[in-house]
Automatic annotation (TrEMBL):
Keywords: Hydrolase, Metal-binding, Zinc. The gene is Haghl. It comes from the Eukaryota. One of its GO terms (biological process) is methylglyoxal catabolic process to D-lactate via S-lactoyl-glutathione. Residues 3-139 form the Metallo-beta-lactamase domain. Its cofactor is Zn(2+). InterPro entries: Clx_II_MBL (IPR035680), HAGH_C (IPR032282), Hydroxyacylglutathione_Hdrlase (IPR017782), Metallo-B-lactamas (IPR001279), RibonucZ/Hydroxyglut_hydro (IPR036866). It holds the Pfam family HAGH_C. This is HAGHL protein. Belongs to the metallo-beta-lactamase superfamily. Glyoxalase II family. GO terms for molecular function: hydroxyacylglutathione hydrolase activity; metal ion binding. The lineage of its organism: Eukaryota, Metazoa, Chordata, Craniata, Vertebrata.
Amino acid sequence: QLLEIVRKEDVVLRAVLTTHHHWDHARGNEELARLCPGLRVYGADERIGALTHKVTHDQELTFGAIRVRCLFTPCHTSGHMCYFMWEDGSPDAPALFSGDTLFVGGCGKFFEGTAEQMYTNLTQILGALPKETKVFCGHECTVRNLKFALKVEPENEIVKKKLSWAKQRDDEDLPTVPSTLQEEFLYNPFLRVTEEPLQKFTGKTDPVEVLRTLRTEKDNFKKPKERPNPQAMLAFDWGLFSPFLEKK
């Protein structure tokens, strides 16, 4: 799919920026490197497939007019790197490619790190970026994230509106990404750990402990089951489906 886009846009693929080594983010690297000789693959973890250039925190890269700042955010994996991009003099907002660290309405699981690390990632590193920054995350799990956010803050009107919007986008098969950093602070529970409703929900006041408890709650969160269609249930009760059901 990527190479088809490259062909349609009539451009040459020169480099790949990989956030972390998980297969659903890096599995195409080896094949791309084979098909595009000389391809540069950037990342911060030796486990990234076809890695050619290891980057470090705050390192800056330039691709034509595009400037990239590498932001090291270990926790989801020990070698997770986010990429902040902008063009000097451009009216467009800068962009953050946040991989599995920051999602629309959520954050990544702490597979190889701690709540302390994620707190630093979300407050001092990503949270300190310009508020108009567009957030391009690694997965579309917005509806599920916002259902959890609503459980945490049932009175938050912005959460309700964003969830309703995200459901509609989902129904129409349209993306919910990107959001903006400014928006995330209004409905993303993992960025709101100092707010009173979050402390009340978790029973904690220390921001790191609030974050740790939130992540545990989110890991165990089961989205509400869709209620079965009442007409279908009646049809089952009346045996209308019996001719189509085989007995074991």
